[in-house]
Amino acid sequence: MSKPIAGGSNGAAGLEVALPHPRAVGPQIRGRILENERLLAFALLSPTVLLLGMFIAYPFVMGVWLSLSSTSVGNIGEFVGAKNFVKAWNDSIFRTAFQNTFVYTFWATIFKLSLGMWLALLLNRSFRGKRIVRASMLLPFIVPTVLSTFAWRWMFDPTFSVLNWLLYKSGFIVTKLPFLSDGTYGLWCAITVNTWRGMPFFAITLLAGLQTINPDLHEAASLDGANGWQRFWNVTWPLLKPVTLVVVVFSVIQTFSDFQLIYVLTGGGPANATHLLATYAYQIGVATGLLGEGAAISLFMLPVLFVVVWLQLRYLRRLEGA
Amino acid sequence: MSAEHLHRRDFLKVSGGIAGILAAGRAPAFAQGTKLHVVRWVDFIPEADVELKRQAPEASKALGAEVVLEFINANDLQPRVTAAIQSGSGADVFFMMYNWPQLYQNALVDVSDVAEAVAKEQGGFYGVYKPSFQVGGKWMAMPHSIVGNAVAYRKSWLKEVGASEYPKTWDEARKVFTALKKKGRPYGQTLGHTFGDAPTFSYPMLWNFGGAETDQTGKKVVINSSGAVESVKFMQAFWKDCCDEGGLAWDDTNNNRAFHAGEISATLNGASIYIVAKRQKEKIKDERGEPMYLDIDHAGLLPAGSAGQFPLYFSNGHGIMKYSKNQKLAKDFLRWVHSKQNFEKWFQVCEGYSVAATTEWEKHAMWGKVDKPLQVFRTAARNTRIFGYAGPATAKATEVFSKYVIVDMYAKAVQGMKAEDAVKWAEGELKKIYEAA
Asked: How many CB atoms lie within 10 A of CB B427?
């Protein structure tokens, strides 16, 4: 413990400091440690690194290991190299799921983008009850996917479909449409539900982007004689492009790895016709218990998503450089 | 006991106990607050689950531990079991169906002591259990009950098209249901990925025409046969002429709802359609306003094909998980459930939808009281086959079931694939499973 001594400057009391004293070594080292920026950075980052390691790196490495092993439920399995990947590639159901994943992602994204853009442009206008409409538009996005998909499943029910009933009563059809009992219909039903659920995310993000565009630019374009389409194409779209790209990339990632919607709506059926990679991986890995094969199927998503993320990062870096 | 007065003997007692717990890696059984977590399917007879819930506190009291029952959709059972085994944690006891113990054998506890005692006391298990629940002569799950899937049909509707009883052969059935479909009363059948009505229809459809997955060794796939092709061709015609084509997207509940709504004339199902219609007779009525259950009867077997009639029923049971810290308690729970007085209460509530796993219950007085349409379930469990026929019901056979290969063979064919190609597709899938090294 330091003690007060007489003889400080201007007669003030001073403290006994900075003298070689064995008791002072501890606090000195502590002080040096605390002032060390590297250690501080390490200390601040380590919780995040630990969390990322536990919840992202470990499951990923585990997934890769499983995909290279013959692990099945209750059996540890052994290293089998790329056997699971080869088996998946030669599996006709896997190929259907692989193709479905692309079709589903492509069309759902196109619809979400075009309808979301249209909705954003409408909501960017001033009208009575604008705030209520904007808030209610988010409902499909807020309701848990499983619940809303159940509601859609009832609407597409093979026997009691309200849509079939409406179409029949209105005279548009004479026999029931096989919404979920035909593979092609089933996939388009899933695309419809995905569009319904995901469109508000596009609309609200694009609306935020639209509101950052200076109205003077539109006014100037109007004075120059530009019509609505020309104003959109030459003023709105170029300024909205960065936001659009980010939202599309996020949507592609989510849609490509979608699980809940298909699992609840069709379960991958009929006869595996609507499986996506995620649902088929679950069917093989978790329901059937072939964990190695399931992991290999899900890892087929990795290269595609890697390319999408790489493109996004590249574009964002270019924007930062501009 | 204070530290000052700790005698050497007391010290040894305490430290030995702690060492024992540490060595075993588990707390002593029946510790205060011990819970036994049991996961079962949601029964198609809701009152059966109500009865089990009613019994749970009694079991808790008898066993000195809290028995917690959880009921989940049967289609979610396998994913739940897989997740539990892989994480080494979860329920102590899981509901097991068909021959699942073969698939999960490495994760299940040998329950031979319980099974053999119950079998000895109650007339022995039905034949289907030995190949499906036993591994290497050991019972890896405890047989509990069998659901006899039979065809529920509307008597008056069949009579209207000239059938005074349920058709005996598939050819007769096709004539009857073609006429009924023309009247807007089709046959209802799922070919979806659902655990019950889809496989219990598809496998017998294959067997009844002489088809089989493998030969008797279980190592050679023999599905690409004239019998299998004949059955698929028949199914294509039957589907088009007789069935509600929405069945491709049905699960195990759709046909119950469609039947009660008067949308279909017949469907393969357990007794639940009849029992629910009777218990809700004020609500479920036919087109004349009469209680529908009065117009329902059952055919115990699907019609015969060119090779005969061979049923597949749900043979159910309970498996104790190896990771469970309450294995002894779980065995005691199974003994408690299967004691005659406890099982009897549940058995009677089921009214034949689920029958016992042991034969003695065929003689139970309940059968003298249940309605005539339910009598068919009394002996239904005697001759059921199991997956993998003509070979053993191994884990590979369970894999074929879990992947719905046989169901999909028919589903693909009724959607337009040529019968020969559908069988060939199934052959390829089966070879990957049965003939893989």
From this structure: 19
Residue in A73, A157, A272 closest to B103 by CB:
A73
pLDDT interval class at B248 (50, 70, 90): very high
In a domain, B3, yes or no: no
Report the first-to-last Cα separation within chain A, whole angstroms.
59
Tokens of A34: 């605390």
State ipTM: 0.83
Per-residue pLDDT tens over the stretch B131-184 = 999 999 999 999 999 998 899 999 999 999 999 999 999 999 999 999 999 999
Stated as kind and residue range, the H or E segment containing B189 is none
B79 contact partners, CB below 8 Å, separation of at least 6: A282, A286, A287
Residue B249: closest C-alpha in chain A:
A181
The vertex-B140 CA angle with B35 and B199, nearest 5°, equals 100
Name every chain B residue with its beta carbon within 8 A of the beta carbon of A86: none
Cβ contact B249–A186 (<8 Å):
yes
A269 touches chain B (CB under 8 A): yes
Cis? peptide before A270, omega within 30° of 0: yes
On chain B, the residues whose CB falls within 8 A of the CB of A285 are: 82
Please tell me the total count of domains within chain B: 2
Can you tell me which residue has the tokens 């609505």?
A: A228
My answer on whether B323 and B184 are in the same domain is no
- Look up residue B317 and give its two tokens: 């049971």
In a domain, B324, yes or no: yes
For residue B256, the chain A residues in CB contact (below 8 A) are none
Q: Are residues B306 and B324 in the same domain?
A: no
Closest CA to B100 of B131, B128, B132: B132
Q: Say if CB B255 and CB B196 are below 8 A apart.
A: no
- CA-based nearest distance A297→chain B, Å: 15
Which CATH number covers residue B227? 3.40.190.10
Element at B174 (helix H, strand E): helix B170-182
Cα distance between residue A281 and residue A275, in whole Å: 9
Which among B81, B245, B425 has CB closest to A178?
B245
In chain A, ranges of CATH 1.10.3720.10 domains:
97-280+302-321
Label residues B12-37 b or e (16+ Cβ within 10 Å = b). eeeeeeeeeeeeeeeeeeeeeebebb
CB-count exposure of residue B62 (10 Å: 0-12, 13-18, 19+): middle
The answer to the question of residue B21 being in a domain is no
Is the residue at B388 inside a domain?
no
Q: B310-332, pLDDT tens digit by residue?
A: 999 989 999 999 999 999 999 99
Contacts of B81 in chain A (CB under 8 A): 73
pLDDT of residue A6: 45
The answer on pLDDT for B98 being more than 60 is: yes
Question: Which residue type sits at B104?
Answer: Y
Residues B159 and B235 in one domain: yes
SS3 for chain A, per residue?
A: CCCEECCCHHHCCEECCCCCCHHHHHHHHHHHHHHCHHHHHHHHHHHHHHHHHHHHHHHHHHHHHHHCECCECCECCCECCCHHHHHHHCCHHHHHHHHHHHHHHHHHHHHHHHHHHHHHHHHCCCCCCHHHHHHHHCHHHHCCHHHHHHHHHHHCCCCCCHHHHHHHHCCCCCCCCCCCCCHHHHHHHHHHHHHHHHHHHHHHHHHHHHHCCCHHHHHHHHHCCCCHHHHHHHHHHHHHHHHHHHHHHHHHHHHHCCCHHHHHHCCCCCCCCCCCHHHHHHHHHHHCCCHHHHHHHHHCHHHHHHHHHHHHHHHHHHHHHC
Same domain, B109 and B45: yes
Boundaries of domain holding B100? 31-147+313-383
Domain A97-280+302-321 classified CATH 2.20.25.90?
no
